[in-house]
Specification:
A hairpin with a 5-residue loop joins strand 15 and strand 16. The chain has 2 domains: 272 residues, 3-Layer(aba) Sandwich (Rossmann fold); 70 residues, Alpha-Beta Plaits (2-Layer Sandwich), CATH 3.30.70.20. It starts with 6 loop residues before the first strand and ends with a strand. 50% of the residues are buried. Helix 5 packs across helix 7. It is α/β, with parallel strands linked by helices.
């Protein structure tokens, strides 16, 4: 039986439990929440890094708590929660974000994705395999619990991009080296989506992130909560609210072109409550969009194309390092797929920009906000520091 894409959007002004419980119940009732009676449910929040909730880097613990309660009210046999940030130690449990505490309080089991992962062939990547958590094959329902955020490489972090966190730890940074452009990275993410096959998506947009996300942006109260039976459709709604034309985002375009969405035209998506066209945030601080690079891949063979992609990507803005703010933790050095960074105890981070692929992984994991991204001045030239 064909499913029809539904995105339910509602105002939700606070993270108070009573308000979130009521709004989430309404959204899931309107947007075809799956039958989870006597089933095992895996919730995948966005824990880019185990940051404090008020920084808007992670899915808020209050949203996750409300969703766990909803799942048990609807008869779930077991609720599991998991994610794998780019850098974390063994037996990782998210403490600063309070998500580990929420799991314990609400009776959900925290899952360590890095333990005993299984290799999966990813469609659209010429046979490339990626490790994915064993628990993925042992649950009945997977729900992406995303955060409305900008993303320096992919323009937006949404329900589908959130699933990249199911790839354990540093395996993610290797993907940036193999798929350096937005288009190639979108192809990999679309293939990953087709393997994981999530059943539902929730998006925390009560406090969102604008500016240079997904870690260094600015929290912004947007007062919305979203739910959908099609994560790709929810990402369309997010794009519209942020002020993007949906098909200008490489991942949405790729999901559509690969027929991984339940919709063929944007008009196929139903909005039973609020319409995102009426919720556009005109002054939302978006990531500046760059020219597409897919044409290069059509004109050249894979090896030559990859070299050209890397060179093209290096024309993107550079990450800049403020060594006065740098705490010398070395996280950026560890995660850099191009091995472009070294740590000098006296000088701080030293960058070899000829090796930098502009994936911005360093920017994502810096706990001290010591990394910014170049901006263009009025004449189109790069300026050396953000003002």
């Amino acid at each position: 039986m064909k499913k029809y894409p539904i995105v339910a959007i509602s105002r939700c002004g606070t993270y108070h439990d009573d308000e979130i419980d009521a709004v989430l119940e309404k959204l899931c009732s309107m947007a075809d929440f799956p039958d989870i009676l006597n089933k095992r449910v895996l919730l995948k929040p966005n824990i880019l890094s185990d940051a404090a909730p008020e920084k808007a880097i992670t899915t808020r613990p209050e949203i996750l708590a409300a969703l766990i309660r909803l799942c048990y009210r609807r008869g779930a046999d077991q609720v599991l929660v998991g994610d794998s940030p780019g850098i974390h130690g063994p037996n990782f449990i998210p403490k600063t974000s309070m998500i580990g505490e929420v799991c314990e309080k609400e009776g959900a089991q925290w899952c360590e994705f890095a333990k005993e992962p299984r290799m999966h062939r990813i469609p659209g990547t010429l046979g490339h395999k990626l490790p994915l958590p064993k628990i993925m094959d042992d649950v009945d329902v997977i729900i992406s619990v995303a955060k409305l955020k900008t993303h320096q490489l992919m323009y937006a972090t949404g329900s589908v991009k959130n699933l990249f966190g199911m790839v354990p730890g540093l395996h993610k940074s290797a993907c940036h080296m193999r798929y350096p452009t937005r288009e190639s990275f979108a192809r990999m993410l679309a293939g990953l989506y087709s393997v994981i096959k999530p059943h539902y998506a929730i998006m925390d947009a009560i406090v969102s992130m604008e500016g240079p996300g997904p870690a260094g942006g600015i929290p912004r109260h947007t007062g919305l909560l979203l739910a959908s039976n099609d994560p790709t459709a929810l990402d369309v709604a997010q794009a519209i609210i942020m002020g993007y034309q949906p098909f200008s985002l490489p991942l949405i375009r790729e999901l559509h072109d690969k027929k991984l969405s339940q919709w063929n035209k944007l008009e196929d998506i139903a909005y039973p409550l609020l319409n995102p066209e009426k919720l556009v945030i005109a002054d939302f601080k978006r990531i500046k969009q760059e020219k597409r690079t897919r044409l290069l891949m059509a004109l050249f063979g894979p090896l030559v194309s990859r070299f050209i992609q890397l060179k093209h990507q290096q024309k993107e803005p550079k990450p800049l390092f403020d060594n006065d703010l740098c705490i010398r933790c070395g996280r950026c050095v560890k995660i850099c797929p191009g091995k472009a960074l070294t740590l000098d105890k006296d000088r701080g981070i030293v960058a070899d920009y000829s090796a930098c692929i502009r994936c911005y992984c360093c920017h994502e994991v810096c706990p001290a906000d010591a990394i910014t991204i170049e901006k263009r001045n009025g004449s189109g030239s790069w300026i050396s520091r953000q003002s």
